[in-house]
Specification:
The chain is mainly α and about 200 residues long. The chain contains nine helices and no strands. The chain has two domains: about 45 residues, Homeodomain-like (Arc Repressor Mutant, subunit A); about 150 residues, Tetracycline Repressor, domain 2 (Orthogonal Bundle). Helix content is about 75%, strand content about 0%. Helix 4 runs parallel beside helix 7 and helix 8 runs antiparallel to helix 9.
Amino acid sequence: MARSDETREKILQHAKKLFSDKGYYTTQISDIIESAKIGRGTVYQYFSNKEHLFISLLERFLMEWEDYLKELSIHEDLSTISHHVYLKSRIMQAFRFFFSDRDRANIILRVGLGLPEHFEQKIEHFENKLISLIIKDLKIAVEYGHILKDTDLTFTANLVAGGVFRIAHYYLTIQKNDEKLLNDINMLSDMAAKIIGKGIFNKK
């Protein structure tokens, strides 16, 4: 990595931490300069202002989210595994993305609320990508007879996505329980799959 790239990355990392801890409006360029221990002019070599810096972070998060979703292709045969196991694995995959970077998750799930519209549009893109993935899975579940054909897939996908985002927000930004995180993710995913599954799966 070139020195200029290292400096830009350093600024972004310190900004991410501050935006996560203090929020967008409270965080100032001077805070980032002090945290990163760089000159004021150095920041403006890479970012025109605080808004540009924040948007750069959101765009990075979106790329990371899209790259992550691309890896979640369907490998399991839904005719040979239980729908609970499959639903749990999908929910766990979403949780792992958020739990793998608390500051990133905090910005997406909490700090973004109440920001100007052009910021919120980028954050909504995260939700839309997740909803699209869920709808794709639901359509396959319908084909296998796990879900009734007359199920409103858009409504169901939004219900599932809303639960995933809210649970991640609660445990990452409200409760902030770091102990045995992977085990917590397993437990949370199992609980969510059981509750959601009771409402959407065909009980034939």
